Amino acid sequence: MWDYLFAVCQAWYPLMRLLRLGDMSIVEMAYFKYYVMQVERLLGPGIDNIIEIWNRPSCPHMRLIQASSTELEAKEGQPKDDGEEHSDEDEEDSDGDSIQSYSDAELSEDEDKEPEEGEEETKEEEEPVDEQGKLRYHSLRWWNHYRKKLLPDHVRVCFLLCPNPKVMQYAKDNPDPEDRQALERLLRKEFIDPNVGTSEACEREFAMVLDKFLTELSDFQYRQGVFAIAKAHIWIIAEDEQYLAHIWHEKYSVPETRYLGRFACKKLSKMTGIPSAERH
Q1: Burial of 32 (0-12, 13-18, 19+ CB in 10 A)
Q2: 224-237 pLDDT per residue, tens
Q3: Whole-angstrom distance, CA of residue 264 vs CA of residue 267
Q4: Taking the domains of the chain in order of start, what are their residue ranges?
Q5: Measured between alpha carbons, how far is 270 from 27 in angstroms, rounded to an integer?
Q6: Whole-Å CA distances, 193 to 135, 157, 261
Q7: What are the pLDDT digits (tens) for 144-167?
Q8: CB atoms within 10 A of CB 253
Q9: DSSP states of 46-93 as a string?
Q10: Segment among 75-79, 104-108, 133-137 with least mean pLDDT
Q11: Listed residue (76, 239, 242) closest to 165, CA to CA
């Protein structure tokens, strides 16, 4: 039983970390997407582990099923009079008919519905019939539904600018084109004023800003240039998860970079939640 409870806690732990971030009035935006990616990586295998432990013969659930089956077989082996046997058969037939008719009604309703535009893309997988399959199906379905709402542009950019070596390595090993697109959109909003100059002048200015920023970002991610590995002390500080990312950039990026430091301070200093407002 404890193995089963441990598997449940292990599968949902990354989601609990996300919920905890939303319940705290602290600046932890640097780690938000990292925890989202951990949910993405661990939720499916975690649910499979729950189902695997649930189906083990040593699980109390399976023991109860085996005990009930043995008791039922023993009762069925006892002689019954004709009246009782006839009533039981009638009851089984009526239950079977009702269940089958209910299932047929559901299927007929689904068949009668006309597919809407784009519905084929969303219905790639049918809902399983068994309870364990439903657990996996609905857990992943709702996660995929709300995942995109957890990753707005500023969350993606903060993930790229997090100075923690563990998060930086994960970002380099798992590149996402949407992170780059989000970065370009926020850079344009931050440094380019569309009301000043012509559209061509704005594009030229944005190209120069983007090129310089990407150079600084590359130096930051690979510890080159002003972020060279020789400055070991700044990365020792960054290893501390309790050290606020925007404070780190204020001390070590702003004096050395033209765009990255100021941009990182502004985006990483956002709150992750609004304390316990959802409880009231």
Answers
A1: buried
A2: 888 987 688 899 99
A3: 5
A4: 174-268
A5: 6
A6: 49, 20, 20
A7: 888 888 899 999 999 999 999 999
A8: 24
A9: HHHHHHHHHTSTTSHHHHHHHHHHHHHHHHHTS---HHHHHHHHHHHH
A10: 104-108
A11: 239
Residue 112 CA to residue 203 CA, distance in Å, equals: 53
| Burial of residue 205 (number of CB atoms within 10 Å: 0-12, 13-18, 19+) | middle
Query: What is the rounded distance in angstroms from the CA atom of residue 168 to the CA atom of residue 170?
Result: 5
242 φ, ψ (degrees, to nearest 5): -80, -15
Q: Which two tokens stand for residue 137?
A: 């199906």
Cβ–Cβ < 8 Å for 245, 30: yes
Tokens 């100075």, residue?
A: 163
The number of angstroms, rounded, from the C-alpha of 137 to the middle of its chain's C-alpha atoms is 15
- Identify the DSSP state of 269: T
Which contacts (CB < 8 Å, 24+ apart) does range 132-137 have? 132/51, 132/54, 132/55, 135/47, 135/50, 135/51, 136/44, 136/47, 136/48, 136/51
Q: Which amino acid is at 3?
A: D
